[in-house]
Design a protein that fits this description.
523 residues, disordered N terminus, six-stranded mixed sheet, five-stranded mixed sheet, 2 domains
Amino acid sequence: MRKIISLALMGVMSLATVFASGCNKKNKTADSATDIEITFWRSGMGDEFMNDIVAAFEAKYPEYNVDFNSETTNTAIADNIMNGAKYNTVDLYFEPIPSNSLYQYLEPLDDILTMVNAGESKKVSEKVSKSLLDNYKFYDGKYYTLPYGGGVCGIVYNEDLMEGYEIPKTTNELRNLVFDLYTAYNKDNCKPFIYFSGGYWEYVYNIWQAQYDGLDYYYNTYSTLGQDVAVLGTESEKPSLDVLTAKDGRYQALKVLETLLDSQYVVSGSNSADHTTQQTKFLNGRAVMMCNGAWMNNEMKTASSTSKNFSIMQTPVISSITDKLTDVKTDAMLSAVIEVVDNVTNGKIAISDVKKADGTYKIGEVAICESDWNRIFEARNIIWENYSQHAICIPNYASAKEGAKKFVAFYFSDEAQKIMNNKTHMSLPFTFDKTENAPNVDSWSTFEKTMYEFSQKYTMVGYVEGRRSLVFTRGGAFDYAAVNFVSAMSQQSGAKSADTVWSEITKAFSDNWNTYLSNAGLK
């Protein structure tokens, strides 16, 4: 027997009001190990593809019934998961985890990664990008969530307005581009950048942090706050306040933002207007660039847009990375190396054309050391992902736990991913079991094709500190101490400098450090 559909989806508003005024819980009703109740946040992806995947699953596994509830909000986990089996009937969520403290209610999903779907030869773990899966690994080495949507993120631009301008390879080049665009378009009431309430900039400044610090430091020192991974969450080695307050890539990213967020370069209302309002302005040519992601494509279909020509640039490499290099000390040289890196990555030249017998790399007439090449190559070939903000998870008390796991494994089948690709023109960083099932992107827009290319080609960097250190997971710390610096740095009057913002951030960390440790059970 199918589980009862949620009252919100039935539209029984009066009853919903009654429940909301009480304990906001519902008694568990008809329920069994073969009735899989799913709550799905459709976000910018829509839910048409998911309805088709549910139908395909039920056709393949008729012993299961699926109750599929699609929602426009993403609060179901926060509202219900802590209520336990007596009051929460949901077996499977497709929704962001709003609080790291809720991981205690989640079932480990490691066994799903070892599953092989019928008719396939690859395990689930062999089909999903390793760099993406690494972002989902919790500090205890387990996977409590897996990806279902989202996409790669970065600086999206209007191709029509960018025509005649060179795509920047470094942040200094980006700064110069912003000035040129302002000079060209300000008279037409068009600005270089638009955003909403500070939103989506994190998809860029976090990459600049990782570029400057390097992935080893980002994952194994910053994200763990200096703790050995083997002892994370234990008393044997305490996390480090010095790491949290170090003047690292976060500070360098703030210095870049300081040059970009001048109020004259930003569409009015960017610090207060909502996402839909600002994105619609962007789609209608009020700004040249907006930090955004793969989902913009589907949202664009429902917007009244005067332009459909959009693409995403590789995130420019932070110019101050030269602080960490031996031979590459100027922005011009950095840009020249990036151009060669791009040619190698895109197969235009072979690495043997660049690497010499003595281990150096020749860039034009100049030789650079291997360590410089490796740092720049890494920085250029990483991209921010927000897949890890979209979580497949199962309550550890779910009655249809095994059926839910089977559904999740099926979600990573060629059949299901092909449905998602065809319906949404979006993709996980995913290797198909059979290459002929990979999407044919010939009819996709430039934006869609580029997003797909980036998702398959680059190393995924995402939010991991919430899964790697108890100071973030339970302590309540955030990477920038939850300071709204985008707004603070872009005010028309009284805009704050990067140094002022950084001082506020480090002070907040120091003032709250003992509270973080206490909340995390480390004091």
